[in-house]
Specification:
Blueprint lengths: L1 H32 L4 H36 L7 H24 L1 H8 L5 H14 L2 H17 L4 H5 L1 H19 L11 H24 L19 H29 L9 H35 L3 H28 L1 H6 L5 H15 L2 H16 L4 H24 L5 H28 L4 H28 L11 E2 L2 E2 H26 L4 H14 L1
Antiparallel strand pairs: 1-2
C-alpha cells in the first residue's frame, strides 16, 4: 500500500502540472483562434482526429492488451525482452500504416465529423488535418512506451512527459499570436503559412513529449531490437484481445461522429466543437489527476493479482480503489459544477461565452463519479484478459449515447444543443457503469460494492453542505455578473480571474468537505491525507 501511495503521489503531481499547463495551453490557443467561430471549430476537429486514435490505442488496445501481457511476460527468464521486441516492431509498423491511411482519408474524416460545416470550413479543416494527423504515430508510440513503463512499475515519466508538449505548444501559439495576431476565428483570415505554423506547433508538441518519454526507457531494464519474426509471441491470444478492442474503437468512433455531426449545426454562433473539447479538457482535469493517478498503480497491482489467480485480493483492490477514488472525485464534481461559469471563463473570450459554455461542462460533470467506478471495473476485466465483455457494455453505452444525441435537436434549442449532447453522454456512461458492475459481479462473485456504495453516499452527503457554502461564496462575488466571470478587472485579464474564481470556490468546497468528513471520522480521509503528504513531500 505504501508503494501504491508513493506511485499515486508521483503520478498525481505530474498529472496536476500537466493539466494546469494544458489549461494554459488551451487559453493561449483560444487567444489565437477564439472559442466561438468557424475557423476555431475547423482546427479543433482536425487536431482531435489523432486524439480519437490515441484514446483507443491507450485505453483500449494498449491498456487492455499490453499491460497484462507485460506483467505475465516479466516472469520469463529474459524479463519479456524477446516478446516485447516483437510487439514493439509490430506496433511501429501498424502505427505507420494507420497514420498513412488517416492522412489519405483526411478530407473524408473532416466531412464526417463536420457534417454541417461550410465548404470553406471543410477545406480549412482538411488543411489543418494534414499537419495534425502525423500525431497519430507519435501518440501511439507515446502510449506504447508509457504503458510498458507503467507495467514495469516506472510510473512517473508517463505522467510528466506531456508537460513538454504543453510548453512547446504554449511558446509556439504565443509566437503565432505575435506574428499573425489573435482571435483568428474567421475562415477567410487564414493562409498557408498560418496553417503550417499552428498545425506544425500542435504536432511538434506531441513529437517532443514522445522523445522525452523514450529517454526514460532504460529504467525498464529492457534492451529491445527490431524483430519482424512475429511467430511465437502469442499473436493468436493478442489478436483475440485486440480484436474486441478494435471493435470497441469502431463503436467509440461512431458515437463521436454522431455527436460531432449533431453539434456541428451550432458551429460559429453557439457553443460547438471547440467549446465541447475545451469543456472536456476541464472535466478531464480532476479525472486525470484523481482517477489516473490512483487507478494506474492499482491496475498494475490488480493485474499481478489476477495473473496469479488471487481473486480475493482482486476484490479487495476493487473495493479500496473505488473508495479512494470516490472520496476525491465526489467533491471535485460538486466544486466544478458550482464553479462552472468561472471555470468556463478560462477557455472562452468573454463573460457571455463563459455563461454559454458552462452548461456543457456541467453536462460532462454529471458522470464523473460513475466514470471513476467504471474505470476500475473495466480495467479489472482487462486484468483477466477479457476485452470481450467491455466491448458489450460499451455497445450498450454507445446505443444510449447515439439515441440521446439524435433526440436532442428535436427537444432543445440550438444554444443548448452541445450541453444537451454532453448530458446525454453522461447518462449513457452512468448506465454503462451500472451494467459493467453487474457483469463483473457475475464473473467474480460479490464485490463488496454495498460497502463502496455506502462510502460514496457518505461522501455525497458531506459534499452537499460543501457545495452550498461554495455556491454562497460565488453569489457573494456577484455570480455570473461578478468578478469571477468578468472580462477584466483593474488590468487583470478575465481568463486569470476565472482561474482565481475557480480556485476560491473549489478551496471553500474542499475545506468544508474535509471538515464534515473529519467530524464523522471517515476512515478514507486518512488514506487521502497520506497521499497528499507524499505528494507535498515530493
Amino acid at each position: 500500500m505504501h508503494s501504491l501511495g508513493r506511485a499515486s503521489a508521483m503520478i498525481a503531481a505530474g498529472t496536476l502540472v500537466s493539466r494546469v499547463t494544458g489549461l494554459i495551453r488551451t487559453t493561449v490557443l483560444v487567444a489565437a483562434i477564439g472559442a466561438f467561430g468557424h475557423a476555431s471549430d475547423a482546427f479543433t476537429i482536425a487536431n482531435q482526429l489523432p486524439n480519437y486514435v490515441f484514446q483507443v490505442i491507450s485505453a483500449g488496445l494498449i491498456t487492455a492488451v499490453l499491460v497484462p501481457q507485460v506483467v505475465k511476460w516479466s516472469g520469463r527468464e529474459d524479463g519479456g525482452r524477446e516478446h516485447l521486441s516483437k510487439l514493439f516492431t509490430l506496433g511501429t509498423v501498424v502505427l505507420l500504416v494507420v497514420t498513412a491511411l488517416a492522412m489519405l482519408a483526411a478530407p473524408w474524416l473532416i466531412r464526417l465529423f463536420g457534417a454541417d460545416y461550410t465548404p470553406d470550413q471543410i477545406a480549412l479543416g482538411t488543411a489543418f488535418a494534414y499537419w495534425c494527423l502525423p500525431q497519430v504515430f507519435f501518440y501511439g508510440m507515446f502510449a506504447l512506451i508509457g504503458e510498458t513503463l507503467n507495467a514495469r512499475r516506472v510510473f512517473g515519466p508517463y505522467a510528466w512527459a506531456p508537460i513538454v508538449n504543453n510548453i512547446v505548444s504554449i511558446v509556439g501559439f504565443a509566437v503565432f499570436i505575435a506574428v499573425f495576431g489573435g482571435e483568428r476565428n474567421a475562415v477567410g483570415d487564414w493562409d498557408p503559412a498560418m496553417i503550417a505554423v499552428l498545425g506544425g506547433v500542435a504536432t511538434a508538441g506531441i513529437v517532443a513529449q514522445t522523445v522525452v518519454l523514450a529517454v526514460f526507457w532504460r529504467r525498464t531494464g529492457l534492451h529491445l531490437r527490431p524483430d519482424f519474426d512475429w511467430r511465437g509471441m502469442g499473436l493468436g491470444e493478442i489478436r483475440s484481445l485486440a480484436g474486441w478492442s478494435f471493435a470497441m474503437l469502431l463503436v467509440g468512433l461512431v458515437v463521436s461522429t454522431v455527436q460531432q455531426q449533431v453539434i456541428s449545426a451550432a458551429s460559429g454562433d453557439e457553443a460547438s466543437a471547440t467549446v465541447w473539447f475545451n469543456a472536456w479538457l476541464v472535466f478531464m482535469l480532476p479525472y486525470s489527476i484523481i482517477v489516473m493517478s490512483i487507478g494506474t498503480p492499482y491496475f498494475t497491482q490488480l493485474s499481478e493479482h489476477a495473473s496469479a489467480g488471487r481473486d480475493d485480493e482482486v476484490r479487495g483492490d476493487i473495493q479500496r480503489s473505488v473508495r479512494s477514488l470516490g472520496l476525491l472525485v465526489v467533491i471535485a464534481a460538486v466544486a466544478l459544477i458550482v464553479a462552472a461559469v468561472p471555470a468556463s471563463r478560462i477557455f472562452t473570450g468573454s463573460a457571455g461565452e463563459a455563461l454559454a459554455a458552462a452548461p456543457v461542462l456541467i453536462g460532462f460533470l454529471v458522470c464523473l463519479v460513475p466514470l471513476a467506478v467504471q474505470f476500475v471495473v473495466q480495467r479489472t476485466f482487462y486484468a483477466y484478459g477479457d476485452t470481450r465483455t467491455p466491448f458489450f457494455f460499451t455497445v450498450f453505452q454507445a446505443a444510449i449515447a447515439i439515441g440521446l444525441a439524435l433526440l436532442m435537436p428535436l427537444v432543445v434549442a440550438e444554444d443548448l444543443l452541445t450541453a444537451a449532447v454532453a448530458l446525454g453522454q453522461s447518462i449513457s456512461s452512468i448506465a454503462q457503469a451500472v451494467l459493467a458492475v453487474w457483469l463483473l459481479r457475475r464473473r467474480l462473485g460479490p464485490l463488496g460494492m454495498g460497502r463502496s456504495l455506502w462510502a460514496l453516499t457518505r461522501f455525497t452527503l458531506a459534499a452537499i453542505p460543501a457545495g452550498a457554502a461554495a455556491f454562497g461564496v460565488y453569489l457573494l462575488a456577484g455570480g455570473h455578473a461578478g468578478w469571477m466571470a468578468a472580462d477584466g478587472v483593474d488590468g487583470m485579464p478575465g481568463k486569470l480571474l476565472g482561474a482565481v474564481g475557480t480556485g476560491v470556490v473549489g478551496l471553500v468546497a474542499l475545506v468544508i468537505y474535509v471538515a464534515v468528513l473529519a467530524v464523522f471520522r471517515t476512515p478514507e480521509l486518512r488514506t487521502a491525507a497520506g497521499l497528499f503528504g507524499r505528494l507535498l513531500g515530493r
